[in-house]
Amino acid sequence: MNIKQMLLIGATVSGSAALAQTPLKSVFALPGVHEKVSAELVVRESGPLTRELLIAFTDKATGRPITEFEEELTQQLHVLATDSDFTSFVHEHGGKPGPDGRFSVVMRFPKPGTYHVYADAMPKGLGQQVVRFEVPVGSSAFAAAPAHMSANAVSAADGPYSVKLDASALRAGRESMMTLTVLKNGKPATDLGLYLGVPAHAVFVNTADLGYVHAHAMAADSGKSGHGAHASHGAPTAAASAKMMLHATPPRAGRYALWIQFKGGNQVRTVPFVVDVPAAP
Q: Do 85 and 182 share a structural domain?
């Protein structure tokens, strides 16, 4: 190989690396909330299915980088991802941002495909803001065919844990309550702990418009006070009740992929559902 060929190969490799790190632009993903930020994502490949995600937020009113964030659910940034057929779910955290406000999150994706990646943060003084990116991972030639989504199942499982869900009261555009019970080997679980300060989390993604809702549960005997996405948190070592209720406001009627996350046996469990939310009467 001569020097000219080596230089051409080097230029090609450098160009590919630069292309791989071209920032992706965000789409605002929190229906019903005023859009106050934009964001950029740089994706760096760190393994066949592992990516380092570098996320930077900008204040749309000033055009300046955002460097200060409030902690919500024990974290300054939640990064959640699901594939295009809503059969996979990943939830990671960004820790603290760098001096320039940029977060670094390492995420391992379960299979090749295109992922909807949500960055959920509370920039100081701006309230909750959620943006979405479309991130290709691996070769689409090896991506699985879209799965059939059975809606309105009343139970689903992760290992020995299952969740009985009643989402029949959910209505679009208004706060509704759903109830859930966590079972272990068919009996109410007694080894549940708090995950990110609360008994359980629910993440809804509208399968049509990709709108996002993140809410959390409380014990069924807690009463209505203190519910919502920004309630106070318990001690990390506190126990959680097997019977819970969760208030959520799906913004629009339609089908939602739903993931319930909780800590069972000192391990985070993820239980998937699909729910059809009707319009309010």
A: no
